[in-house]
TrEMBL record:
Pathway named in the protein's UniProt entry: Protein modification; protein glycosylation
Species of origin: Staphylotrichum longicolle
Keyword Transmembrane helix part of the UniProt annotation: yes
Swiss-Prot/TrEMBL keywords: Golgi apparatus, Membrane, Signal-anchor, Transferase, Transmembrane, Transmembrane helix
Transmembrane segments: 28-47
Protein name: Alpha-1,2-mannosyltransferase
Amino acid sequence: MDQTPLGRLAFLRHFPLKVFLRGGKARFAAVAILLFTFACLAYRLFFYDGFYAPARVPIRHPNNDNHAPPSGWWVEFFTRLESTRVTARAVKIKDWDAAINWKPDINVTREDIVKLRGDDEAKFRQSHASLVDQLALFASHLPYEANTTGIVTTAGVANFGQVISLVLMTRRTGSRLPIQIFLDSSSPWVDLVCAKTMPRYNATCLSLDDTWAGMGRLVPKFVRFQWKFVSIIASTFQNVLFLDADCLPVMNPDAIFGQGAEPFTSAGLITWPDFWTPTVSPLFYRIAGGMDVPPLASRASSESGMIVYDKARHADSLLLAAYYNYNGPKHYYPLLSQHAAGEGDKETFLQAALVLEALRQQGAYKQPTAWMEPGIGVKKGYYDVKKLPSVHGRSAKGKWTGQKNTDPPAPAPRKREGAEATSIVEEDFLTNSTFLATVGDLVLEHQHGRTMFFHHAGVKPDFTRILDKKWGLVETDEAGRYVRLWGDNGWIMETLGRDVEKLLWEDSMGVYCHEELAQFKRLQEVCAQMRVIYQQVYT
């Protein structure tokens, strides 16, 4: 069937209207209502949604140029995940409280509000144990290009404007890391930006459609959060900084991977905290192998808008996280968050590492050791940043919106361990590197140059939406004057030493006002409106 907007509406001309007209006024009224409905749908399709509607267009396919794992890997990947799929009924939450992760007393008992029958718990246990039994072999040949490092994100037509902002801000920080953008959908304007604009910023748009062609039902229909683990695995980079499309770097992230840089050197996995108390159900730890339930105050809930992986060292924990996400929406997401704020993939990555370390210590899991190389002192651990994010934003007409400001990982100085090993002793290469950071006095203070990411929890940084008043990207004050996206510029200048918001507008106009995009009427209007606002606010 023709998938163009015109093709979707073409069936109207074949509709037998004369059948209705024979019935007199009642049927005539029905026809009128029907035509009015289709007119409204057509308007929405052509003049608004058509710009964001996915369309099958030819974009760069990674399997054609060695930019993704080979298709044989994906057959194994989906086969193993499907063979261990959780068959239990969907997890239900009982007596849910919206304030579940806003408890003022850190010593409060961990919430346990999952409702799961005994036979379903047994199915969970069997599924989890089956995957772990396969994990060492599964992880031993995870594909990647050795000694490569880059940034990975994922997007579709509806949020591709956010990725444009991410790429522009990343380059403004001075980052030189290559960027891979995995698309879950595309459209003509996205395809053109991918082909003409992104290469100028060393960014590549990738699709897995052709790679997965012929696999049929073996490939599930992924939703929202699930594309994150797929893109990390599909990336050819060994060392990955994954960023959500709405998580903009404001400090050069390349230093995370610098020679001897900690905590990456001693961990290979870095996660950041969210605002809240963790709400992982105690049942999860029983299902995962009878682990001890950690104290509630041992760490905050996780933020998955930014994650750092060495896929060589953490192939196994990454694939366990993939299992949690594969079974996420009805099973592991509610089990790991119990419907608390931000439920989704956010807890899956760090928890996977914690589970495997606990199982290894119990003697219940023997990890792959291909990453261990005598003489170079490479370690494997996990590092969960302890410093909580801060918040910054704007106020317009009594409504406040903002984003989370996240610091770079900054462990206390420590002596590097020697590299005299001459034989492979597993314990010599393992470390629980969470000790590299400690919880001090949680005083929220702005330090010059110490903020690394702006993660937009409210208005998303998508300039293609600048014409949509409901989106809220542009606001005015009580006097009708446009206000800045990130509020008070004094704090931005004090923290970062430069007007990053102004620079983002300038760089974005360079994209949306470029002649190569002039064929898209909506982008012409975006460009015009950006120039008006820039003139009023930033000059």
